[in-house]
């Protein structure tokens, strides 16, 4: 039965890609953009660009107003109490690096940082390198066979020496929601700071940072139908106050002479230099667009597509799906077929999926794999996209077997 | 530079190929022509990194002429490697340096395999060859 996406026409690139015979199923990497975002970028550049927080002139005031309006919208989107708890960065990766440098002074040699075995490199390497700089122990929380952090093991491993817990909300490889609430509650009780990598999670349903009770929550705009080059760092006020400034330059400073300077608190103190102004304004437009959709309809649509995807993969012989994906995506390998060969043939047939290690080499390694193919969905995909993928998969496998 | 008989044969068959399926079949057939690498040849030194699949490039120079062998655990990459080797077999360093290998793959209708976003390793192999030819 055909399952259309009622929002497909809102994303002009989908039709353009279709004219090039491309079926886009790499949405966990980045998403296509709604017309509302294109309009906002065009309006900003077409009506007068200006720098923010600096100038008294009218274009500067308008740009600052639009920029700060997005801060309000992001705070609202995450249910943060105050827009001043939202720091704009250049991406989720740069937000996590900000944390790993900004919190460095909080750690002493021998203390522990806990992350999970499924972390994206962006939520592994900043902590790994911090651990090396400060002589800390990086504790890896193991997974169960379904692709969730093993809660029993994790609660044992997170103890009084744990100073920070950093975990993904939704795995970019396994498509599994992680048992965040129990982990965060336990880590806080142990006195650890908590960081949630929401890069995938924020895209699927509304997240509530106050309910989660995490110290920091990080996501990137471009996976949430917004522009690239923009990341978001939410922090609890007490947690933000513990960050040391890490990048220095324009507008993050209060007073400066040649030898000394004092710096602004968050958010502006962590937004050194000219921020991605158009991108931030564009993110605001994407959030307005998303807020206009019926959230239940979106969740239902994505869930139905995901069931279709899993059914199709399970129906085919020799396909091993990694973990037990709950939504959004599925990664798989095919017995006796190299994923690079299959990816090559899917590409030849205009199917845009991702092959490789998905920026999670240790996870793939622990599964005994050096790569997998990932199909990831967005709200504009429809069942025809999946049909095209499956027929390309069948043709590719027929050739390879 | 004139093409060797084998290279001309490759060009003829790929020029006649219509559609992705036929090209893929040809690639797999060419891949089967590569002689298998020994375990010693599959060494870290010979491994070319930057590929989704494992790729090894074995080289030796005899009387000023280059001779290569290559292998991969992925079949279509083996095909691409075979098409590369058939073009460079027996060339001198000077000839190898002059050779426009991307143009060769474009002639074969496989130019897209060299796009920078592809991590199939062909680009990395070409770079390794260029280093060898330059004596680096």
TrEMBL record, chain A:
Domain Aminotransferase class V per the UniProt entry, residue ranges: 23-389
Keywords noted in UniProt: Pyridoxal phosphate, Transferase
The keyword Zinc-finger belongs to this UniProt entry's keyword annotation: no
EC number: 2.8.1.7
InterPro entries xref list: Aminotrans_V_dom, Aminotrans_V_PyrdxlP_BS, Cys_dSase_SufS, PyrdxlP-dep_Trfase, PyrdxlP-dep_Trfase_major, PyrdxlP-dep_Trfase_small
PROSITE patterns reported in the protein's UniProt record: AA_TRANSFER_CLASS_5 (PS00595)
Domain of life: Bacteria
Reaction catalysis annotation: (sulfur carrier)-H + L-cysteine = (sulfur carrier)-SH + L-alanine
Entry cofactors: pyridoxal 5'-phosphate
Keyword Zinc-finger assigned: no
Similarity section: Belongs to the class-V pyridoxal-phosphate-dependent aminotransferase family. Csd subfamily.
PANTHER family: CYSTEINE DESULFURASE (PTHR43586), CYSTEINE DESULFURASE 1, CHLOROPLASTIC (PTHR43586:SF8)
Name of the protein in its database record: cysteine desulfurase
Organism: Pseudomonas fontis
Lineage, uppermost ranks: Bacteria, Pseudomonadati, Pseudomonadota, Gammaproteobacteria, Pseudomonadales
Automatic annotation (TrEMBL), chain B:
SUPFAM superfamilies: SufE/NifU (SSF82649)
Domain of life: Bacteria
Pfam families assigned: SufE
Domain Fe-S metabolism associated: 12-131
Database matches in PANTHER family: SUFE-LIKE PROTEIN 2, CHLOROPLASTIC, SULFUR ACCEPTOR PROTEIN CSDE
Family the UniProt entry places it in: Belongs to the SufE family.
Protein name: SufE family protein
Organism of provenance: Pseudomonas fontis
């Amino acid at each position: 039965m055909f399952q259309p996406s009622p929002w497909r026409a809102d994303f002009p690139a989908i039709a353009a890609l279709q004219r090039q015979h491309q079926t886009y199923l790499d949405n966990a990497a980045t998403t296509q953009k709604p017309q509302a975002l294109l309009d906002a970028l065009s309006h900003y550049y077409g009506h007068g660009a200006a720098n923010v927080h600096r100038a008294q002139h009218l274009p500067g005031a308008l740009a600052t107003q639009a920029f700060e309006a997005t801060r309000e919208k992001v705070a609202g989107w995450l249910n943060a109490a105050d827009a001043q708890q939202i720091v704009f960065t250049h991406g989720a990766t740069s937000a996590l690096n900000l944390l790993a440098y900004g919190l460095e002074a909080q750690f002493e040699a021998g203390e522990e940082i806990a992350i999970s075995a499924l972390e994206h490199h962006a939520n592994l390497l900043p902590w790994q390198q911090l651990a090396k700089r400060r002589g800390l122990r990086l504790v890896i929380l193991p997974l169960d066979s379904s692709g969730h952090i093993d809660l029993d093991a994790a609660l044992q491993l997170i103890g009084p020496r744990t100073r920070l817990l950093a975990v993904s909300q939704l795995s970019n490889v396994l498509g599994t929601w992680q048992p965040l609430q129990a982990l965060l509650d336990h880590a806080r009780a142990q006195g650890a700071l908590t960081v949630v990598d929401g890069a995938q999670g924020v895209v699927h349903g509304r997240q509530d940072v106050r309910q989660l009770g995490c110290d920091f929550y990080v996501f990137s705009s471009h996976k949430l139908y917004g522009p690239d080059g923009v990341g978001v760092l939410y922090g609890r006020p007490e947690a933000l106050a513990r960050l040391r400034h890490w990048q220095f330059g324009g507008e993050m400073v209060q007073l400066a002479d040649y030898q000394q300077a004092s710096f602004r608190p968050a958010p502006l103190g962590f937004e050194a230099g000219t921020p991605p102004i158009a991108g931030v304004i564009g993110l605001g437009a994407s959030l307005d667009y998303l807020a206009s959709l019926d959230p239940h309809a979106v969740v239902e649509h994505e869930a139905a597509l995901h069931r279709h995807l899993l059914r199709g993969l399970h129906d085919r012989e020799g396909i091993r799906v990694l973990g037990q994906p709950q939504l959004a995506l599925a990664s798989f390998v095919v017995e006796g077929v190299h994923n690079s060969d299959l990816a090559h043939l899917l590409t030849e047939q205009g199917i845009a999926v991702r092959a490789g290690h998905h920026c999670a080499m240790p996870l793939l390694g622990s599964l005994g794999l050096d790569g997998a193919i990932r199909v990831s969905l967005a709200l504009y995909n429809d069942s025809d996209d999946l049909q095209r993928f499956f027929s390309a998969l069948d043709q590719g496998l027929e050739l390879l077997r | 530079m004139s093409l060797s008989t084998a290279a001309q044969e490759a060009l003829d068959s790929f020029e006649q190929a219509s559609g992705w399926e036929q090209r893929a079949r040809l690639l797999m057939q060419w891949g089967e022509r590569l002689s298998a690498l020994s375990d010693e040849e599959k060494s870290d030194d010979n491994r070319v990194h930057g590929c989704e699949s494992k790729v090894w490039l074995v080289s030796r120079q005899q009387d000023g002429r280059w001779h290569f062998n290559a292998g991969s655990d992925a079949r279509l990459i083996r095909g691409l490697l075979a098409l590369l080797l058939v073009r460079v077999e027996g060339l001198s360093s000077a000839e190898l340096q002059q050779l426009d290998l991307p143009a060769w793959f474009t002639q074969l209708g496989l130019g897209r395999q060299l796009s920078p976003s592809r991590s199939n390793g062909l680009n990395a192999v070409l770079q390794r060859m260029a280093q060898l030819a330059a004596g680096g």
